[in-house]
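FORM 7B: Structural annotation worksheet

SECTION A. Query
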Amino acid sequence: MSAPVPSLARPLLSLLTAAVCAVAVWLLARAAVGTASGQRLDQLILSGAEAHQGRLSTYAELAVGSVSTPVIAGILALTVMLVLLRRRPTTLFPLGVLVLGANLTTQVIKHVLVTREALGPGIEITPNSFPSGHTTLAATAMVALVLATGRARVVLAPLGVLWTLAAGVGTLVVGWHRPSDVVGAIGVAAAWTCLVLALDGLHTRHRARREAATGRRRSLARRAPGSPRTAADLVVALLLGVAGVAGLAYGAMQLAGLGLPLDLADTAQQLEAFRATAAVIGGSTAAWMALVLGLRTPGVPETAMPERVP
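SECTION B. Predicted structure
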């Protein structure tokens, strides 16, 4: 009995989402790095992050300290171990492409494609930092772990959102990055995630059509990368999606409501802009993880292995 052929809708939607994310990163770079008004807003938010005193800043500073070589190596090693224990070695390649592709893209954008110069008074003159390498690394390591797990992904996905959010905000609190750097990094990670899901989905569909044509029998179904979608997946994806839209809407409205012209020395305006940006970072991260849970394409069942004769 041949397996059903997965729909083409999810791979195409993943590809479209990847393109939208890539365009969004480009537009963000042009606005936040390439215009005086964008640089002033970035500077205002960064000043608010450095001036903020509270639990958000405390937790965020701890989180960014955890984005270290040993921690990231441990997450990636756990990802590989889970893939091998679940006997899905073919998922190592797309996950590797995701992590390497996103992080290399971030470095190319930062050091080759985007240059920064102060375009107005009150702007700190620093080397280009768009997008954030720390945030890209944390986000891609976490999403690789989520995609490598089975049912535990419904717990790891929200935890991954919280860790990525805290690490991203932490780079602002310690003064390593501007807010646009963090949002841009999430965009890069989301673009590569959706691209990999699209290509993997197209490959899975091609394989299913080939197996359906040959009529070869199959064993238990799988989903690539990952495992069968459950009701819990859908519930968590819905909750993350709602939280993501709410965070993005709230943050965008608060930023749009800032009084003009921006007063870079106004502490109240700095803190208001920082809190709004934290909502945007959290919203974009939650929306991205919701898409990850929703866009995984059903895989082709594995070929049944013949029993070994003693």
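SECTION C. Observations
Residues 9-298 form one domain. Residues 217-226, 298-310 have pLDDT under 50 and may be disordered.

SECTION D. Sign-off
Analyst initials: ____
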